[in-house]
Here is the input.
Amino acid sequence: MPARPRGRRRPGLPAPGSVLIERILVPGGAALAAAAGEAAPARTYRVLRTSEVDPYDPPLTPAEMAGLAIGLVRPAGDAFEGTARRDAKISISDAAIEDFDDLRDLIDTLPAHNKMKNHVPPISKGRNSKRVQEEHRNVRIRAFIYAASREDDNDFHLIVGRDPDLDPVYMTMELSGLPPQSSSHHDRLKETRNAYKDFFAGDIPGTSYDFYDPPIPIEVEGSLFFDMSHATGSRPGPASLRPDMPVVWEVHPISRIVFEP
Here is the structure.
């Protein structure tokens, strides 16, 4: 594959004018190893905290931008606090796992937007809306986290894409807020959420998007989910990446995540 011309910005970076602060992420395991005097992986990541939010969210106020620019992020709770399609978002399908090597290959298998938008029977956006037949699929894929934010319902909203040397394609994948402890899905979702928080070691994103340079390699497993709340109107995602996000399908919830596999 030809090398990218020198001086051209890598796909997947935010608009330069949106960057509020730049930090260096030392992954949690590497930080602990270094503190113990052990050899640690050399890989670190630039965290570009931006003013970019989902299009359905209000723009950040000057005060919010000032807080984010000095690194202030409201601590995230763990319990799921949303209502839209709650039952589906905090449940894991019992389907067999399908393996994919490329995000584009996964996207090519998804039912058409209009079929799901006009689903028969209709997909309710209510609290008790469960998975429909097309959502009873579990997938495993190796990909990269390009950006992330924390939503008001306590989901971590990950924008996951292909290898940065390939044509850009992105998809939303979400670490759900936790169901009640009585749920059979609670422990697995908690373990996955803890793995995410351990890797970021305090550099958890806030309500606006953090971008990562280079993008962070991951292996993800989870259940497919059609975001009926955004079947009409603007798609989710930060403005810099949204043009290359072709679907409102998601992996939601993520049931397993491995960093730097």
